[in-house]
Each structure stands twice: as structure tokens, then as C-alpha cells.
Design brief:
By secondary structure, the protein is of the alpha/beta class. It is about 30% helix and about 25% strand. Strands 5-4-3-6-7-8-9 form a 7-stranded mixed beta sheet. Strands 1-2 form a two-stranded antiparallel ribbon.
Length: about 210
């Protein structure tokens, strides 16, 4: 259930669901999702479902990971610098690391981040920088970012993240307090525009840090 063939079937389903970016598909094929979840759920790793990870968090379903990645990369080059809010288990981080020059990722739950750091080091994914902090404030010393991806539902996009988005940049976020909608923001000429896409369901974006 964790074989390359199983991964190939997952990627084929992504194509059937409308994912068309071949680089995203190749990244999804190359990253072993079962290594990012608890062993008890490894047999379900390549189903198109979200699964629980530690500290009451989840790993998003493969379609949502691919969809958000495809949207984020639509106007970006492989030389881009990305900010991820919500490292979680590091699966989305790893997919992005295969596709862009560098990923800066922030996680607010310290013990979860330490576990993820060890995993990513073991998998030899090196073009990433990780930080335990409140992601609402971004990571200004490394900005502006060509793309920003938020992997938890924000009631509204934190202003600091809009400020740290580069000119011509793209921000992808599940937004809403009750009903959540996947939204894509673009910054052009200093102006922000937004497009609303499909309904989604994520854990809420929270402030503060848990040690």
C-alpha cells in the first residue's frame, strides 16, 4: 500500500480531478506521503483523504495539496522564494521544495516542528528554512516572497502577509470562519486582487506559539 505503483495511482486520480501541472504531478509522485503520517494510517496514505497527525493537526488530502501548489505556481518560476504558514508534518513543504528555489516555513507548535525537522533532515530536503513562530506575522527578514501559502483557515488574511508578498506575487489561502473558500490573491502595481474558488475545510489559523 506504500509502493511506487500506489503513488502512481494517486497521481492518476489527481489528473482525473483536474490537476494539470506536470511539475506538480511529478513532485507528488516523487514524495512518499506515507513517511509523513503515523504508522497506523500508512495503509491509507495514498487515498484522497485528509489524515490526522500529531497535536490535533491534519495532513491535507493529496488533491488539496496539489491544487494549492498548482495555484501558487501558476505565475511563478522555479527560482521563486516561497513562504509557507503552517509546516505541519512537512508534506506540503517537501512538495514545494521540489518545485522552487527555497521554502521558508513557519509552524506555531514547537514539538510538532521538532518532529518535522528531524523527518525532513532524514529525507535530505535541504532548500528549506523552518521557524517556530506565530505565522500571522510572516518572516519579514526573508521577504518579500514570490508566493505565500497558508495551510490553515484564516478568517481574513493577516496584513503582514499581504505586505510581505512581492510585486507580481501570489498568495493562496483557505479563508472563512465558518464556511471556508479557497482564495487566490495577486499583487500587481501595489494593488491586491482576489479570486474565490472551491469550498474547502481546514483547521483554523491560530495565533501564538505552543511550546
Amino acid at each position: 500500500m506504500t509502493s511506487q505503483r500506489t503513488r502512481e495511482r494517486m497521481v492518476q486520480r489527481l489528473g482525473d480531478l483536474g490537476i494539470s501541472n506536470l511539475r506538480v504531478m511529478e513532485a507528488m509522485l516523487s514524495i512518499p506521503r506515507h513517511l509523513y503520517i503515523e504508522e497506523a494510517f500508512a495503509h491509507r496514505a495514498y487515498e484522497d483523504i485528509a489524515l490526522p497527525i500529531a497535536f490535533n493537526q491534519t495532513i491535507s488530502q493529496p488533491y488539496i495539496v496539489a491544487r494549492m501548489t498548482e495555484l501558487l505556481l501558476s505565475n511563478l518560476s522555479g527560482n521563486s522564494k516561497i513562504l509557507e504558514i503552517g509546516t505541519g508534518c512537512g508534506y506540503q513543504t517537501s512538495i514545494l521544495a521540489r518545485l522552487v528555489n527555497h521554502v521558508y516555513s513557519i509552524e506555531r507548535i514547537s514539538p510538532l516542528l521538532e518532529k518535522t525537522k528531524a523527518r525532513l533532515f532524514e529525507l535530505q530536503i535541504h532548500n528549506i528554512s523552518l521557524k517556530c513562530a506565530d505565522g500571522s506575522f510572516g518572516w519579514s527578514q526573508h521577504g518579500p516572497f514570490d508566493g505565500i501559502i497558508i495551510t490553515a483557515a484564516a478568517k481574513v488574511v493577516p496584513p503582514a502577509l499581504i505586505q510581505q508578498l512581492a510585486e507580481g506575487g501570489t498568495l493562496v489561502v483557505p479563508e472563512g470562519a465558518g464556511a471556508q473558500t479557497l482564495r487566490v490573491y495577486h499583487k500587481n502595481g501595489g494593488e491586491i486582487s482576489a479570486v474565490s474558488l472551491e469550498a474547502v475545510r481546514f483547521v483554523p489559523l491560530l495565533g501564538g506559539v505552543e511550546r
